[in-house]
C-alpha cells in the first residue's frame, strides 16, 4: 500500500550526493516537493537560495503555470514522474536534478521521453536504500537524472558511490 501523496522522504545519503555532485552554491533553486524539508535545508546549507513548496501545504506542482525559479532539485512522486518532467519543462524550468527509479527510461514511453528531454547526466547509485521505510533490508535501486538544459545532445552515464 502506497503512502498518501506518495510521500517518501529522500534518504540523506542521496541528498548529500546530489548537493555535493551537482549543486552550485550560487543557484536559486525551487524544491517543489519539499516534504519534510531535508533537501531544502541541505541546499540552503550549501549556500543556495531555496524556494520550497509542497502539495501538503496546498501548493501542487501541477497547478503552476510558470516556474518559481529556472532550477529544480527534488525527489518527485514516482507515480507521475513522466508527467512531472514534461510539466517542469513546459513551465520554464531550464535545469533540474531529480531522484528517480533506476529503470525510468527502460520502456517504450521512457525511451520516447528520453529522446525528447535527454538529461545531461544520469547517475545510478551503487547502494540501495530502505526508501519505502518498511524497516527491513534496502528495497529500492535509485538514480539521479540531471539536466543542464531541457534537452542535452548527449547523456553522460555515471555510477555514484557514497
Please tell me about this protein's structure.
- The chain is an alpha/beta fold.
- The protein has one domain: Vaccinia Virus protein VP39 (Rossmann fold, 3-Layer(aba) Sandwich).
- The protein has four helices and seven strands, in the order αβαββαβαβββ.
- A five-stranded mixed β-sheet has the order 3-4-6-5-7, covered by helices on one side. Strands 1-2 form a two-stranded parallel ribbon.
- Strand 3, helix 3 and strand 4 form a beta-alpha-beta unit.
- It is globular and about 35 Å long.
- The N and C termini lie far apart (30 Å).
Overall 3D shape = globular
How much of the sequence is in beta strands?
25-35%
Tally the helices: what do you get? 4
Q: Give the overall pLDDT as a whole number.
A: 90
> Which homologous superfamily in CATH is the superfamily?
Vaccinia Virus protein VP39
Question: How is the CATH topology named?
Answer: Rossmann fold
Count of discrete structural domains = 1
Radius of gyration (CA) equals 15 Å
Gap from first CA to last CA: 30 Å
- Which bin fits the share of residues in helices? 10-25%
Structural class: alpha/beta
Sheet with the most strands: spatial strand order: 3-4-6-5-7
Level-1 CATH class name = Alpha Beta
Task: Explain briefly what this protein structure is.
With 162 residues, the protein is of the alpha/beta class. It has helices spanning 12-21, 38-46, 81-90, 108-116; strands at residues 28-31, 49-52, 71-74, 95-101, 121-129, 140-147, 156-160. It has one domain: Rossmann fold, CATH 3.40.50.150.
Secondary-structure map:
Layout: H1 12-21, E1 28-31, H2 38-46, E2 49-52, E3 71-74, H3 81-90, E4 95-101, H4 108-116, E5 121-129, E6 140-147, E7 156-160
